[in-house]
Amino acid sequence: LMNVHQRVKLLYGDGLHRGGGRVVVTKGARGAAMYQRGVEMAWATPPAVEAVDATGAGDAFVAAITVALLEGMDPAEALRFACAAGAFAATRPGAQPSAPERDQVEALLVG
Fold first, then answer.
1. 14 is annotated as an active-site residue
2. Is 70 exposed, middle or buried (0-12, 13-18, 19+ CB in 10 A)?
3. Over its length of 111 residues, how does the chain's per-residue pLDDT go in tens digits?
4. Which DSSP string do the residues of the chain spell out, in sequence order?
5. How far is it, in rounded angstroms, from Cα 52 to Cα 38?
6. Are strands 32-36 and 22-26 parallel, antiparallel or unpaired?
7. Burial, 67: exposed, middle or buried (Cβ in 10 Å; 0-12, 13-18, 19+)?
8. Which residue out of 14, 59, 74, 103 is catalytically annotated?
9. Which of 66, 59, 42 lies closest to 100 in space, CA to CA?
10. How many CA atoms lie within 13 A of 78 on its CB side?
11. To which H or E segment does residue 14 belong?
């Protein structure tokens, strides 16, 4: 699994998909997409939040997508979970203080 921001995807283009593994492209508040061999297999958007600081959002996203996939969530559900974790992290300042607990992510998903 490779996670890249949309700017990196623009830079490397199709080269990101040569390894055959999954590639997740994050697009900030617009969401994220997961590809397998260059074919989009899932897309998710984050829940709407009042963003304060995006410093830890990417780290929270990567941790959440890793946990979700290791737990066996399907790609769309895993992306949705990861987007919610990143969104939650953006509601607090700083990197470590903004890292969400699982119950906080799940509560955000419920709405």
1. no
2. exposed
3. 677 777 777 777 777 777 778 889 999 889 999 999 889 999 999 999 999 999 999 999 999 999 999 999 999 999 999 999 999 999 999 888 889 999 999 999 997
4. -EEEEHHHHHHHGGGGGTT-SEEEEE-GGG-EEEEETTEEEEEE-PPP---S--TTHHHHHHHHHHHHHHTT--HHHHHHHHHHHHHHHTTSSSSTTTPPPHHHHHHHHH-
5. 33
6. antiparallel
7. middle
8. 59
9. 59
10. 22
11. none
Residue 86 is predicted with a pLDDT of 96
The residue to which tokens 């699994």 are assigned: 1
Tell me the residue length of the chain.
111
| The pair of three-digit structure tokens given for residue 5, joined into one six-digit string | 């921001």
**Phi (first) and psi of residue 107, to 5 degrees:** -65, -40
Task: Fill in the amino acid letter for 76.
Answer: A
| 34: phi then psi, degrees, rounded to nearest 5 | -115, 135
